[in-house]
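Quick sanity check, NAD kinase:
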Amino acid sequence: MKFAIFGNTYQAKKSSHAENLFRLLELHNAQLCICREFHHFLTNDLHLNIPAAELFDGDNFCADMVISIGGDGTFLKAASRVGKKNIPILGINTGRLGFLADISPEEMEETFDEIYNNHYKVEERSVLQLRCDDEKLMKSPYALNEIAVLKRDSSSMISIHTAINGAPLTTYQADGLVIATPTGSTAYSLSVGGPVIVPHSKTIAITPVAPHSLNVRPIVICDDWEITLDVESRSHSFLVAIDGRSESCRETTRLHISRADYSIKVIKRFDHVFFDTLRNKMMWGVDVR
């Protein structure tokens, strides 16, 4: 099998996990291609001996499987590079919470044995697409987690006129609005009061950030509907964050958000259950008294 590998370039203290990953792949006689930035970090900064591998930049790679070693942020970067390639991604978690990258370093050996025995699941996760006339945003308009509209740091709250399939929904007076996939429901959306959504529910959550009215609540809609946003701001600009990558946007820019025409494939161990993840990662049901 051929693996394309992306990694976190800020976790020098966890270099042993990367060493173990390459040791296991070498045992399986795997073909490797490594993101050049990650390879430079491993060899020049950490001085690790890495097996012979192809190096690649951007999305210029081809593989049977992608490995992301880091946290969910590293996984999102890998997913943006995979794009429409239809290559499944395995996330090894050396970060903190780890909803996307949920294979612990201690599970790596078992996991690769299962992969080589074809004993694993592939989950398809929906992706959001942004359409607008802003060239900067259109360079990378896809989000696995969320697309957020936010006020600038120094400005007052913004007015976000929101329509669903052309029909007016409401005008949010708030610090922002988070449009999240089910995958992104446990990320930024959750932190601003959005609902946890089962990954395969084919929905989109719309959650305001610090709304001025207490009767404004999150809403969940079908993911084959289109959301249109028109934003008013005293500073005449606002921020658009696509999976955390933010760009300033002009007030006159109309945003159209809908489900993309492709999905991201995520590799899970065969016994993986989403509700187990909720209990373990979010400590549901734990009595701390």
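Posting the structure with no commentary besides this: The chain has a mean pLDDT of 93.
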